[in-house]
């Protein structure tokens, strides 16, 4: 899949028609699923839930579905220059430029 755009491109919210960037979603991430490399965030326009799969240099928006076990459906990919992500069993560490955040995984 080719990237849809860049994390600083404006995205129209399908729920309220407002606008947000994937960078805003990354820096406002609040949770990480226990068994998936997926973080939870919310749009800045209407606080709608968003799920992101973050990798070094790349962010994907999508959703989780169950097919015997939970999977992430990668719907849109965004180039994320400078994004460094480290997952371990207890937490995920996100670094993007001067921004750094460590989020504990769900128990």
The helix/strand class is mainly beta
User: Mean of residue pLDDT?
Assistant: 95
Spatial shape: globular
**SS field, number of helical segments:** 1
Rg over C-alpha atoms, rounded to the nearest angstrom: 13 Å
Q: Share of helix among residues?
A: under 10%
Uncertain residue ranges: none
By DSSP, the count of extended strands is 11
Q: In angstroms, what separates the terminal alpha carbons?
A: 32 Å
Q: Profile the largest sheet.
A: 6 strands, mixed
Bin the strand percentage. Answer: over 45%
- Helix-strand topology string: EEEHEEEEEEEE
Strand order of the largest sheet: 1-8-7-6-5-4
What do these coordinates show?
It is a single chain. With 107 residues, the protein is mostly beta strands. The protein has one helix at residues 22-27; strands spanning 5-6, 10-12, 19-21, 31-32, 39-42, 49-55, 58-66, 70-79, 83-87, 91-96, 99-104. The strands form 3 sheets. A 6-stranded mixed sheet has the order 1-8-7-6-5-4. The longest helix has 6 residues, at 22-27. The protein is globular and about 35 Å long. The termini are far apart. The mean pLDDT is 95.
């Amino acid at each position: 899949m080719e990237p849809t755009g860049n994390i600083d491109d404006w995205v129209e919210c399908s729920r309220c028609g407002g606008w947000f960037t994937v960078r805003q979603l990354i820096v406002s991430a609040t949770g990480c699923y226990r068994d998936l490399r997926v973080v939870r965030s919310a749009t800045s326009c209407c606080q709608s839930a968003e799920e992101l799969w973050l990798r070094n240099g790349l962010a994907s928006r999508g959703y989780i579905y169950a097919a015997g076990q939970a999977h992430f459906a990668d719907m849109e990919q965004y180039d994320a220059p400078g994004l460094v992500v480290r997952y371990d069993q207890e937490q995920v560490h996100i670094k993007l430029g001067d921004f750094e955040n460590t989020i504990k995984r769900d128990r």
